[in-house]
Amino acid sequence: MRVLVQEAPFAFAAEADAFASAASGAGAVVTFTGVVRESDSGAMSVMEIEHYPGMTEKALTQIASEAVSRWELADVLVIHRHGRLAPGDQIMMVATAARHRVAAFEAAEFLMDYLKSRAPFWKKEILKDGAAEWVAAKDADEDALDRW
Amino acid sequence: MDVLYFAWVRERIGVAKEQVETSAVTVAELVEELKEREPRYAAAFADLSALRVALDQELAEFDAPLAGVREVAFFPPMTGG
User: Fold this and answer.
1) Chain segment A74-92, per-residue pLDDT in tens
2) How far does the CA of residue B41 sit from the closest CA of chain A (Å)?
3) Residue range A10-25: mean pLDDT, rounded
4) Which of A100, A103, B50, B65 could form a disulfide with A71 if both were Cys (CB 3.0 to 4.6 A apart)?
5) What is the ipTM, given to two decimal places?
6) Between chain A and chain B, how many beta carbons pairs sit less than 8 Å apart?
7) Is A7 helix (H, G, I), strand (E, B) or coil?
8) CB contact under 8 A, A117 and B78
9) Which residue in A54, A92, A137 is closest to B77 by CB distance?
10) To the nearest 10°, the Cα dihedral for B58, B63, B69, B75?
11) Is residue B16 assigned to a domain?
């Protein structure tokens, strides 16, 4: 299990490849990458991601450990960035490895649902005209936890 | 204890971290003490349903006891992923 919180970009392909190579015996590897979405109006220039150093690492580790205890996973990887990102930049990735694909898919979805509302990150959209707005949490994201 | 603020709570109060001497028994009592300090605190804590709290870096409820707690953090609902 590996959890990384970092400002620097990560190399998605290299991480995914190394993860898959190390998970020997696993028949299924699922990866998910979150990308900074352009705002609907197209007016966003930068997304600032604030986090709670210390708690972030703890929360991500707890979430990853929970996934490992619920599904038979060979390995889990979580990378989440903070700082200033531009539309198109990769924010985060998760990877899960399991003997069969159902566990790998489900665990990846579980990780994503919990990362959304239980990992202490906050997103702020800085618009091209200089205005700034905090991204509000969605009820749907909180509701998504109920299925687990 | 150390009190930390994140995202718009930090912006509204104007500091990221401060030392607070308090005899509050619960988080809710601490919030009431802070609200009485200055309008910026009252503004930040106006709607507790829009806030979350962590005690020593674990999510908690507003009626949780503060005994033994070293670090309290207030922030809006999280938006990771």
Assistant:
1) 999 999 999 999 999 999 9
2) 19
3) 95
4) A103
5) 0.95
6) 68
7) coil
8) yes
9) A137
10) 50
11) yes
Q: What is the mean pLDDT of chain A?
A: 95
Q: Which residues of A touch B78 (CB under 8 A)?
A: 116-122, 137
Is there a domain that residue B80 lies in?
no
Q: For residue B75, give every residue at least 6 positions away whose Cβ sits within 8 Å of its Cβ, in sequence order, or none.
A: A52, A120, A122, B5, B6, B7, B9, B51, B52, B54
- Number of domains present in the structure of chain B: 1
The CATH number given to whatever domain includes residue B54 is: 3.10.20.30
**Per-residue model confidence as pLDDT tens digits over B58-70:** 999 999 999 999 9
Tell me what percent of the residues of chain B surpass a pLDDT of 70: 100
Per-window interface: A 13-52 vs B, CB < 8 A: 34, 50, 52
Coil vs helix vs strand at A135: coil
Which CATH superfamily hosts domain A2-147? Answer: Molybdopterin biosynthesis MoaE subunit (3.90.1170.40)
